[in-house]
Design brief:
Elements: H1 2-27, H2 32-65, H3 79-106, H4 110-131, H5 133-163, H6 168-171, H7 176-197, H8 207-218, H9 222-243, H10 245-255
Length: 256
């Protein structure tokens, strides 16, 4: 199970970076060699920047924790302070995560921003696990807070936002739907093959264990949706904005 979770955690940023890389080649005038060379830079640089941001987050949350005194005769903080710390930690982590993501888009390194955001969460989680049981409890509380934000706000908003731009009549037709199924099948098959062979190298797993890990970690399609849903939508929206009749008529009238 830990290997499955680690594999999915690594796969998401790499998959999102790869999709942004391909669409960057399509929509950008940069040379292929330069764009390919920037790939490792984004992955390594994003991981480093994310870890630095994670350390800054931990420092800020540590200062917030120390604002209050511990209860007399105990080593615990008051429950009200722990709740305050939980929601402030959620706010700080989300603020840093969005900042890294938007910074990546601003400097034309969206994949690096995604890697940095993932590294941010990994470094904070790993640090709090290693320090002591008190920080492990804080980690659990913050995880509950982040899950609540996702379930009650972020997920409904994102699904509604993307869903509002989807025309089902253009998706479920004889031309588009088979292509969508093919993309989904190839994506999932590639992920399963990758998770069977790559993460378990040198660990001495049997073939049965490798296949179990590959199906368990590679079959879920959520990371494929995350990686592929946003970028094509942004690309098509930009192309429509450039080639729309209203835009062309505006340009022609200005020119005349």
């Amino acid at each position: 199970l830990p290997l499955m979770l680690a594999t999915m955690g690594m796969e998401a940023p790499i998959g999102i970076w790869a999709v942004n890389f391909v669409f960057g080649l399509i929509s950008s005038d940069k040379e292929i060699g330069f764009a390919a060379g920037m790939g490792p830079v984004q992955i390594v640089g994003g991981a480093v920047v994310g870890c630095i941001a994670g350390a800054a987050c931990h420092l800020g949350i540590w200062l917030l924790r120390n604002e209050a005194e511990r209860l007399p005769g105990t080593k615990r903080y008051a429950e009200a302070h722990l709740q305050y710390l939980k929601w402030m930690s959620v706010f700080i982590i989300m603020l840093f995560a969005h900042g890294l993501l938007f910074l990546g888009y601003q400097i034309d390194m969206a994949g690096g921003g995604v890697v940095a955001t993932t590294a941010l969460g990994f470094c904070i989680s790993h640090t709090w696990t290693l320090i002591d049981d008190e920080w492990l409890d804080i980690k659990k509380n913050v995880a509950v807070g982040l899950a609540s934000v996702w379930d009650l706000a972020a997920m409904p908003y994102l699904f509604a936002l993307v869903g509002s731009k989807i025309n089902l009549s253009t998706v479920f037709n004889r031309v588009m739907f088979p292509k969508a199924l093919l993309v989904f099948a190839v994506s999932v098959a590639t992920r399963i093959i990758y998770t069977i062979f790559v993460p378990s190298i040198g660990l001495g797993f049997s073939w049965e264990e490798k296949i179990f890990h590959g199906i368990g970690a590679g079959f879920p399609k959520a990371t494929v949706q995350i990686a592929m849903a946003g970028s094509p939508l942004d690309y098509v929206t930009k192309q429509l904005a450039v080639t729309s009749p209203i835009r062309r008529s505006t340009k022609s009238s200005n020119g005349s």
